[in-house]
Design goal:
By secondary structure, the chain is α/β, with parallel strands linked by helices. Helices cover 40% and strands 22% of the residues. The chain has helices at 10-22, 33-42, 59-68, 84-92, 105-122, 156-167, 175-182, 191-205, and strands at residues 2-6, 26-30, 47-50, 75-79, 97-100, 130-133, 136-139, 144-147, 150-153, 172-174, 214-217, 221-224, 232-233.
Length: 237
Amino acid sequence: MRILLVDDEVQLTEPLTRVLTREGYQVEVASDGATGAELARQGGYDLLILDWMLPHQSGLAICQEIRRQGDVTPVLFLTAKDTLDDRVQGLDAGADDYLVKPFELLELLARVRAQLRRSVTQKTPDPETHLHRDDLELDLDNQLAYRGGRTIELSEKESTLLEYFMRHSGQLLTHSEIYQHLWPTGEKPSSNVLAAQIRLLRRKIEAPGEVPLIHTVYGKGYRFGSGGESSSSSGPD
């Protein structure tokens, strides 16, 4: 389990790193906020332990930044800021736990274990509600997609359409099949409505410079995936 410890107090980080290492964790240390933020952006950690008051960039700002990017890595604040308002501000910024200095080592280790258990749970999402195809992730429970470090909010219809594409990646889906999936009952909308729905979804999940994922197969339908064929295009419908 990898832990990032961001604190500028060497007299704290050195002994704490030794203790955490003896507990079996892999610990990386940053002594200023800018370095800590860069390491946090790179990801791959199971827990972030952040001081609040840091050179160059505060721990609060680091926490806010990773949450804006959709990173759900557990965050534990380890700080001397001890007022109720401080705790509320830290938790509102996205922190999962808050421990005030000075602290008891046994309590810190217990909180670390608790957050790491949560981290393991988050990394094993329900395959029925969390889909991964190529570099795109879809969270059906929250109607959110993630790609290129950004969080993409989806409408209910966009989420349903993207789920259908991702569950049939690489397959040619005809217009009639997509219509039947999106509008299973009642009167079907015009063909222009489906084309507009595809355009809106493309704009959200295909940022400039990213590999196109939705390919038009002219006269037939659409194919989803990063590998297009000569008969396919990601251009206008």
